[in-house]
């Protein structure tokens, strides 16, 4: 009966994934909002009896499902970005300056602020750091309403002209991998004790080596796959010529696996692979075909996860939620992330030449739309498997509340705010 019901849920998710985006396109209502609501209603009925909804009992399943959702989203996001990044040219790096600022300034500020709020509320240091690390990264899965639509192709110069959507998309693509070192801070605090015991190991291994390995693995895999797809000497291997877009799935799975095997961050490698692959034959229609496959799979998996999340909400997931979790979640969405984003994106006097420029309204929107989602659930599931201290019901309730609050607040405001900032594309 449980397996049969899972098929029903999967079928309903697929149907909703097909019809909801177009159905809701004119309303300030997002598909994730509807799916969470539908899941909550189903959770109030006897139908979910026997389904794996308890995060403590089903942590491994939750970890791997959310892991898959995130890597599919990262591949789609990387393929969608039109702005090139040439590591040999400083001017190219400057064009990505909003991204680097959000990652180097905004994300650490967010992690530190949430960790301090958690510590002030009585959490153990390891738990407070994990809460900050899990909730800090913006999500590439639930932020489609404020991200770039997809790759431009054809016989023209390809670049991304929408600074707001580019900043949010590129940030979401990179910070899911770059939040991992801070998750390891929480794990090491919980398992190894005092910082002095592991500080050098964290800097050398978790912060530098694993990031570098992940980036290199992504670059190598992207270039190899691009060579095979576009320029292989064997016609049967040049899959771009016949439009075999399932290469997107092979690329994301293989890249993630290679990066993890060699000791790098797989999330980072998948996004870098997509960027590297996109740099080859930038105007080729094959990029759009691959992006469509990744986007459709991401939509299906995301709505499936959100339907289960909604059911879990009315089946006890929020039982451990208290005023601390509510206050921290709302503070993150309404105060901490916007403030950290504004600090990160404020222009530096005399250093704007050659860098991508955001208008005042775009800066505020970029700072505000830090959507939280499936990535936060993954990080919590991963860390809770490393230490019992990090496997608290309160953490699951707080993260779930924050994700749902982000879905509602950002989902309602995305359409009107984006339309106001850019009427032509809102």
Automatic annotation (TrEMBL):
Its main location: membrane. This is Sodium/proton antiporter (CPA1 family). It is found in: Cell membrane. One of its GO terms (biological process) is proton transmembrane transport. Residues 15-419 form the Cation/H+ exchanger transmembrane domain. GO terms for molecular function: antiporter activity. One of its GO terms (cellular component) is plasma membrane. The chain crosses the membrane at residues 6-24, 31-48, 60-81, 102-135, 178-200, 207-230, 250-277, 297-317, 323-344, 364-382, 394-419. Keywords: Antiport, Ion transport, Membrane, Transmembrane, Transmembrane helix, Transport. The lineage of its organism: Bacteria, Bacillati, Actinomycetota, Actinomycetes, Propionibacteriales. Pfam families: Na_H_Exchanger. InterPro entries: Cation/H_exchanger_TM. It is a multi-pass membrane protein.
